[in-house]
Amino acid sequence: MTVSAPGLCHEALFYDSDDAYRDALLPFLRDGLAAGDALVAAVRRENIALLRDALGPDAPHVTFIDRDEWYRRPAVTIAGWWTLLARARAAGHTGARIVGEVAFGGLERHRTWTRYESAVNAVFADAPAWIVCPYDTRALPGRVLADAHRTHPVIRDPGRRDSAGYRAPGSLLRELPEELPPVSGPPLADRPLHDVTDLAAVRETVRAIAAGWPAEALEDLLLVTTEIAVNGLRHGRGERRLRVWRSGDTVVCEAADDGPGPADPLVGYGAPAEGSQGGRGLWIVRQLCDEVAIAAEPARTRVRVAMTAAPGVTTG
Question: I need a labelling partner for 316 at 20 to 30 A (CA). Which of 6, 31, 92, 228 fits?
Answer without folding.
Answer: 228
